[in-house]
Amino acid sequence: MKILMTGATGFIGRSLVDELLKSGSEIFALVRKKSNDLPIEVKQIDFSALSQLTQTFDAFINLAGESIAAQRWTLKRKQTLLNSRVNLTNRVFDLLQHPPKTVISMSAVGFYGMTNEGEFIENTPPASGFAHQLCRLWEHSVTDSTANESRVVIFRLGVVLGHGGALNKMRLPYRLGLGGKIASGKQWFNWVHLDDVKQCILNAISDSAYQGVYNLVAPNNATQAEFAKCYAKSLKRPAIIWTPQWVFRMLFGEMSTLLTHGPKVIPDKLSKQGYQFQFEQLNQALKDIEGN
């Protein structure tokens, strides 16, 4: 299979590349500059090279996007987040000479807005806010560009747990015993193990039954307080530090809602389609990652 990827050097992408190479896929990674982190078998191309390719890709896997939680959401930062998702996706489709057979693109549970009320399956009306707007425009950039010429799969991701990503930022504070409840702690922490993310993407490549939007979160949600307790336990540390909401609001402004609010998201379509999660329980996932 011929696979075009954006975000191949990222947390999910780098791990997915290894799985795709094992299956014999030919990978074209769209990069801004050549990376030594990718295996030599991966063909690294820039936008100018993409416009010259004449083959039809079996799949385009769209993983690109600046981290939404890396810094305050200033107007400039919001534009950067939009550009790295919407504008990049549009540019890829503009340059491709032939539409891919399958398009697999990421989104996030932020699509449902930053609320602590209700449960959300794929067709539940969302709350408002910048996170929803960002995800909505990102998803539309994919569906509008394909014009029904490709099979489209969009995964709305929760917090992806693995060796890297969000846990890399949390590990040191928790090891120092500084983990604990954020705000009320009752906001939902929608998580999914990296192995399940990779497996769902691989399934979506090969199984034409995958179509449309899917919530890619583990079936057993946890509140933020439950996550803090479980993660601290996996590191053999306490989780007794409470940080009130106003502290995060002061430090991070509007972006703090990612930490202090969270909707309960249900993987309804994946469950109905018969997908069996490799990691359904949070303690099981954290034990696999941290080894305790």
Automatic annotation (TrEMBL):
Species the sequence originates in: Marinomonas posidonica (strain CECT 7376 / NCIMB 14433 / IVIA-Po-181)
Pfam family, one: DUF1731
Domain of life of the native organism: Bacteria
Residues of the NAD-dependent epimerase/dehydratase domain: 3-215
Protein name: NAD-dependent epimerase/dehydratase
Family of this protein: Belongs to the NAD(P)-dependent epimerase/dehydratase family. SDR39U1 subfamily.
Residues annotated as domain DUF1731: 243-289
